[in-house]
Amino acid sequence: MTKATRPGSSVRVQSRAATYPRGGLPVPSKPDIAAVVDSRSVHTVFQPVVDLDDGAVVAYEALSRGPAGPLERPDVLFAAAAEHGLLASLDQLCRSTAVRQAASMDWPEGVALFVNVEPAVLEAEPLDELIALARFAPRELRVVLEITERAISARPAELLASVRRLRQAGWRIALDDVGADDMSLAFMPLLQPDIIKLDLSLVQRRPGPAIARIMNAVNAYAQRTGAIILAEGIENEEHLHIARALGARLGQGWLFGRPAADLHPGLPAAPITWGSRPNTAPAESPFACLPDGTQLRRSTKPLLVEISKHLEQEALQRGSTCVVVATFQHARQFTPSTAQRYSALAERLGFVAAIGQDLPHEPAPGVRGADMRADDALAEEWDVVVLAPHFAAALLARDLGDSGDESERRFEFALSYDREIVSSAAEALLSRVSPVEPRSEHDSLSSSPRLDHPGGGVRDRRGEGSDPTNDVDAADPEREAAPTRRTDDPLIALPQLRRALEATTNGVSIVDMTRPDHPLVYVNSAFERLSGRRADQVLGTNCRFMQGPATDRAAVRRISEAVAQGRQYEETILNYRAGSDEPWWNEIHFAPIRDDSGRVCQYIGIQNDVTAKVEAELALQAERLRADAYSAELEKLAFTDSMTGLLNRRRAFAVLEEMLERAQDSHGSVALLYLDVDDFKQVNDQHGHTAGDTVLALVGDELSSIVGATAARIGGDEFLLVLDDLESSSAIARATHLADQLDIDLRNALRRFDVSVSIGISTSPHDGDRCDALLHAADRRMYQHKADSKFKQAVDKLG
Length: 799
Hints:
Elements: E1 3-5, E2 12-14, H1 30-38, E3 43-51, E4 57-65, H2 74-83, H3 87-103, E5 112-116, H4 124-135, E6 142-147, H5 149-154, H6 156-168, E7 172-178, H7 182-191, E8 195-198, H8 201-204, H9 209-225, E9 228-231, H10 237-245, E10 250-252, E11 297-300, H11 301-318, E12 323-330, H12 336-348, E13 351-357, E14 368-370, E15 381-388, E16 391-399, E17 410-416, H13 419-430, H14 490-503, E18 507-512, E19 520-523, H15 525-531, H16 535-538, H17 553-564, E20 569-577, E21 582-594, E22 600-609, H18 611-639, H19 649-666, E23 669-677, H20 680-687, H21 689-704, E24 709-715, E25 718-726, H22 731-749, E26 757-764, H23 771-798
Parallel strand pairs: 4-5, 5-6, 6-7, 7-8, 8-9, 9-10, 12-13, 13-14
Antiparallel strand pairs: 1-2, 3-4, 3-10, 11-17, 12-15, 15-16, 16-17, 18-19, 18-22, 20-21, 21-22, 23-25, 23-26, 24-25
Protein name: EAL domain-containing protein
Domain EAL: 26-273
Domain PAC: 567-622
C-alpha cells in the first residue's frame, strides 16, 4: 500500500485502500472514473504566478478539478484513476481541458500558461493536439510545460524527445518540485529548464544544510544558463522574504492569489523576460558531440578502464545529485566486477544507466539498462558521462577496429569537462534508454506528479498554499525521502542485502574457493576504507596484498591451515593500508560458505580494525614491563651496595639465613669467607678517598667474578663471600682453597696500592647453623689471620 500526504494538508491518498481518504466512503469504481473521462467532466482553475519585484502577473498555473461531489477533489480523482488504470487518460484530458479553457478566455497578452506532464503520456499525438490548440488560440498561448524529475527517470528517451518537440513549437520548460528530491538536481542539467520551481518546503521550513545545498546548485545553474527561479508555497511575508533570499524572481502561493475559475483582473500583467533557448538539435552519438578540431588521443583499453574508474569515483563524491550514463559495446564487457561497481553507484547516485548490445533492462541492481542495435553509432564507442550540478566530465572514445587481444584494442578518445559537451553527450545516451513500466496499475500512482509529492507529500492540484483545516504535522523537509520498494521482489532483495553490508562499519569480503589463488569476489565499502584500495583494484586478486614486513607469518600459516580444513577461525594480525603503508591491527573472523553438496565454495571474512585496542594492550604490557623494571631497580637500590654493586649488609644476612635453612634441610654445608682490607685507612690518608673507592671497587669486581658464590659488602672495608650447597666433609677444604686463591688474586689486583686482604673462614654445621654464629667465627679467624700476617711482616723486617 502506498500512502502519501501533502505537507500542509490533511488529505491522504491510499492506492489500495477500500475507502476514500476521508469519510470512509467506497473508492469510486472504474465506470465512475471512465464516465468522468468520457464526458470530459473536468474543469480548470488558475493560480497566478507573479514577478516578485513589481507584483505583476506573468503566468497562471492550470490546476484541475473533477465534477461536483467527491470527485471534485483532485487527490480523490487521481487516486481512483491510478487505482483503475485510467491515470494517463485522465491526465491527457486535464491538460487539453486546461489549454482549451485558457484559449477561450480573454487571456492577457504575453502571460504564460503553466501545464503539467504525466510520464505515461508522452506520445506524439497528444502533444501535437496541445501544440495546435495553443498555436491557434485567439492570442497564441505561451505555454510552459512543468516536468518532475520522476518523468525523466521513468521515461528519459520519450521525455527528452517531447521536450525537443515542444521547444521547437516555442514552448518553455519548467522543472517542478526542485529540492523535494535530489534527483531533480541530478536531471536539471539534462532537461535544461527555463524555469526552476522550488518546492514549497524550501520557503515554508526552517533553513538548514539541505536547503543551502539546493540553493547552491540551483543558483549556479541559473547564473550559468539564465534560467528563472520560481518559489512555490508563498503564503506570508516571511515566506516571501525567504523566497527572495533563495534567489527567486517569480513567486506563487496564497499570498498572491488562490486558484479560481477566472483570472485575476485586478492584478497588473506582464510577460516573462526569458533567457536564451537551449540548443534542441540532438547529437547522433556522444562522440559526435565533440566539436570540430578537438584534439584526439589514442590508447589501448587499460588506460581507458582506469579513466572510467576515475570518473566513477568522481561521481561518487557528488552523491545523489549526480547522473552517470555509460556505453558498453557488448553485454560481455559488462563484467561481474563492473556490475558490482555500477550497482554501488546506483545506490549512491541519482541515476545510473548502461547501454550495450544484449544488455537487459536492469543489468545490475538499480542500474537502468538499454539494448543497442548492432548498427547503432554507439556500437563503436566507449562513453562514460558524469553530470552533476557542480561537475561535468565525459570520456568519449571510438573503437579503431583492431583485431587480436582484447586488452590491446586501440581507441581514439577525448576527455571533456565542457558542460555543454557533457550535457549533449548525456542527452544522446539517455535518448536510447527505454521506459520503466509500472509493475502494477497502482504503481503508476507513485510516478504521478499530481499525487506523489517527493518527500512524502501530495500535490493535489488545489494550488500552492496550506489547507486551513490542516491537522497533520508536516514532514521534515531535510529528511531524505526513500523510495518505496517491495521486499519480496528478488531484484530488490539483493540491493537491500548490499545496503545492509554497506551500512556495517566492519569490512566484509568474500573469496571464491573454487578458483585458483582464491580471489576476492566481493568487498564492501568498509573493506575499501580499511584496506586503502577500491573494489575494482582488489576484485579478482588474493587478499595477501594486505600483508607487510611485520605481519606474523605464523598467524598467516594458522589462517591458511584453518581455511584448508574448512573451519571457522579468528585471528588478530598486523595488516598494511595501501597507499600510506600505514600498519593496522585486523581482527578477522572467517567462516566457510558451503554449496548444496557440502563443499566449501566461498569464504566470508569479517574485518574489524582493533588497532586502538591492540595498541592499548601493548601499551599496558609495556607499562607493566616498565613497572617491573622500576620495581627491580628499587629492589636493587634497597638491597645492593652502590659502591661495588654487591649485596648490602641487610640483604646478605637474609640470603645467608635462607642458605643455612636449605643446608639444614638437605644436610649440606655453607661456607663463609669474611674479608677485610688491611690498612685501608692508610690508602685514604695517603692517596685520597677516590683511591679508597677504587680499592673497594676492585675487591668487589674480584668477588663478583667467582662463579657459584654470593658476594656482599657489609660495611666499610669488610666483605662476605658465601658458598652454599656444599658437602659437609669437603666444605672446609674448598673454602680454604678458595681463600688461598682469592688472597693471591687480590694481592695482584691491589699491588699498586700496597694493600692486602685478610680472610677468615667458617662453615656450617661445624661452626653453627645460625648466621650470627658463622659471622662471629669467621670474623674471629679473619682477625687472627690479620694478626698472623702482621707478625710475619714484622719478622721479615727484622730478618
